Automatic annotation (TrEMBL):
Organism placement in taxonomy: Eukaryota, Fungi, Dikarya, Basidiomycota, Agaricomycotina
Domain Peptidase S9 prolyl oligopeptidase catalytic residues, every copy: 440-612
InterPro entries noted in UniProt: AB_hydrolase_fold, Peptidase_S9_cat, Plant_Biomass_Hydrol_Est
Name of this protein: Peptidase S9 prolyl oligopeptidase catalytic domain-containing protein
Species, as recorded: Ganoderma sinense ZZ0214-1
GO biological process: proteolysis
Amino acid sequence: MLIVTHCFTSCRSVFFGLIGLSVARLTTTLQTQRQVAMNVPMVTESDGWTVYLSREWEVLGPFPIHAREQHFLSPSFPLNLSEPIDLDRTWPSSYVDGGSVGWSKACAGKDGLIEVSYPAVRWASLRATEGWAALQHHSVLRSTLIVHPPSRSHSLSEPQLLVNLFQGSFFTILPSPDAVGEAVIPEWHAGNIYALGKAPPNALKLPHPPSLDSPTTYQIVVSGDYEIRLFGDPRSILGTEVPKLSVTLAVDVQDSASTVIRDESHDVVGDFVGGWAFGNAVGIGLRSLGSWWTVTGATVSTGISENLTVSLLEKQRIGPTQTRVIPVVLIQTSPVYLDELEIILRLESGDAESEVFVTIPLLHHPQWSADSVPAGGIKATFFYGTSMPSAFLVLPPEEPRNVPLPPILALHGAGVDIFHSDRFWIKALPRQQHSWLIAPAGRTEWGLDWHGSSTQDAWSAVEALCDILASREEWNRWSLAPKTKVLVMGHSNGGQGAWYVAARYPDRVVGVVPAAAYIKSQAYVPWVQSRSAHYVDPSLRAILDSSLTPDDNDLFLSNLAATPILAIHGGNDDNVPVWHTRALISTLKTWNPHANVTFREDSEERHWYPDVFKNDEVAAFVSSTLSGQDAGASIRTFTLTVAVPSDSGSLHGWSIYRLGIPGRLGRLTVNINPDGISVETSNIGAFSYRPESLPKDVKNAPFLVDGQRIELDEATWDQPNFSLALVQEKGVWTPHALFDVATTSLTGRISNLLSSTSPITIVVPNRLPSPESSAALRIAHNLNVYHKLDVGIIDADEADRAVRDGSLASGNLVVLSYGKLRGFAASLLSKSATPFGVDGTTLRLRSRSLTAPSTGVLFLHPHPTNPEALALVIYGTDVSGLERALRLFPIRTGVTVPDWIVVGSQADARGTGGVQSAGVWGNDWSWNEAMSAF
Ligand SMILES: *[C@@H]1O[C@H](CO)[C@@H](O)[C@H](O)[C@H]1NC(C)=O
Ligand SMILES: *[C@@H]1O[C@H](CO)[C@@H](O)[C@H](O)[C@H]1NC(C)=O
Ligand SMILES: *[C@@H]1O[C@H](CO)[C@@H](O)[C@H](O)[C@H]1NC(C)=O
């Protein structure tokens, strides 16, 4: 307690923020939800556990870092938390005068806000040469927690801590510095660095149980990373040269009760139009506080069941501390005008049963018409990835049309929750005469920057609207064409997303209106202050960086050389500098000097302005593009660029199915003229084209691929929807039927795991508390916070059985393991489906055994039962290695992890300089010598 008293004296006002929440409040929450529990220990009125968080923080920094480097470095860099912390020591830092820094202090506000800045650093001088890269920096923050036992001890279960860390990257709880004992291995939890809404708290066990009769002290350590993308330019935000890190920490404690509580923020329900639900998906947010629960059924309360029923889409198991969105299907037989929907969910946990009564408010709109439409649009729902209840907004056109026009797909900026802030996003978009306007959520406010799962969310919203409109006769005449093309529009991150989506799926896009877009993350804030770069072999770095190639929008502009584009940027944008759009246009015009691209530089404007899309130029461009002819038909020369075939659509009917060397870009240049069709390939293994989409005058003309004449059967030309594949074997191209090559490889980078066709399944050795279970729950938590991607957790025996009887879930799989390989992980690897294998109980890569302490390994592996899904093995040679591997799970864009990686303890101080080997798989999971560092 002495140390703590010292803290009291240094913080001026209130010494401790009392953030303890007694269990009493939880009880009230439960009662309002009318939870009826049978045989379940209900949380009772008690004084409960209380936690005090000191408001005084010790701070060490600033250290140069580039965005996302903290996933490789130790979050506590430069400290090794397995050793005592020396508060008198100094550490080298190139940002500070004299080149070394020591500890300083910060005091948290009552609201938990901790502000850290280093005014003594000459930021303006660093910035003069390094630009925004010089403002990126890392700090370690450390403070004290005290956990008090209940005063009347009838609740003696071990409590769990609930932590909300906004805008910090990681935190960990350690024993008190005075506690003698073994060296600790910190368990790092990801903070909510983007301050995303709807984020459940991190729920964790304390590193050792607190005393039941006296207060117990712990330390909390936070990794604080200043990123321009999070905090902006201090010059324009704060009017100063000094960047200020602002993180907010709230800590709470609760009994690990065996209860399920509601999380209403996770509910999903669509609006009703003329008494009918706009989408039949309903989601109910539930969180288990401390045990495993299975949701077994759903019904509506009696009374309304006559015209509206519900059914549970599938049984769902909720892990301790896990939050899931329970998928419920609405079945309606006639119009319903209820103010709220009452649903009863049935749950089981072992022998215990429970029911949760849920009330969800409903919003009704009359049928839309030319002059009546809800200003904030209509909220529609669907099941993303087969069972994840999800929503998006739409604005109907003024008039229906016999032949539907393409809709506008409008991608929001980073941090924008389209359903909140008075729905400003959809209100900023121009309603169309004949086209729908679709605003997808992109999973969350940031999602994956409109790549991967967020792109999938956008296309799924388009398909969902098509299905909803087809589902009712009244809506049929407003329908969309199946697999409709779209006009993509977007602002900021969404402007970047518009370039991304259009260039990856060029045949599905009629035009693009990207506003205030950045090119790619490495161009937004350059990496010159990378710590790793001082250690890593540039050839290894190239392999790691290949995992960002699919995101590099500039590299794919060949695909947009014939697409109508109106690019917009405020000339005074202090958030995304205007040169990004100018550079994209310059690159595009190098591919095609006559590209149909217009640049609108609104010279006086900054990042956002209300008429960015509501102006005459956008109106004219949009109406002419939506009603115009497909420009593609007349295009005679073009280049298709592809990095990951499974994430790429066709260009003028041409598709790349397989690369020569995965990990490198593939390009296909097609020249069509009356004398023949000539194709030049670069790094292509297989491609296809639709003869139908060729101009008529070249029907019987010679067909050359890399100078080789291909003889074709003329009968194939006129078959509708026919695609011909060409495959290269040993330098010779041969025609094939499409189905021979149509299974595209899903590999290329570990973040492909996030593009799952249904919820992700995580396999742990067993469901008892263990390092693997903790890791699984942390992954599930992060996937929920960052992507609203659903996770089911199963144990190894269940996984074995499911593989045998063919019932393993079809979505992507994560297998967690450390130390000796046994059980499911070992049997998966024993098939040697990749160059990783198992020798006895040791993990082996080719002929090298991986045994060094604190080594973390991640690799993609074929899914055991579904050829169209992936498995990811996350392995540590010990607990510390598992922790290291876990931090590389690609929860955010920009973490450079290709298909496989082995990383050791040197990474703590050297970032990617501590990567021992890494690579991209070859085709069919083969060894890819060219793209491996081994
Ligand atoms: C159910 O629908 C029928 C027919 O539209 C209607 O008459 C009845 O009032 C509805 N029942 C309820 C409970 O809304
Ligand atoms: C360029 O695109 C606009 C908008 O779609 C269209 O109106 C115009 O005709 C196109 N110009 C050319 C030369 O294709
Ligand atoms: C951190 O300290 C522990 C205990 O002294 C030591 O075993 C470990 O190797 C250190 N880690 C690194 C990366 O130096």
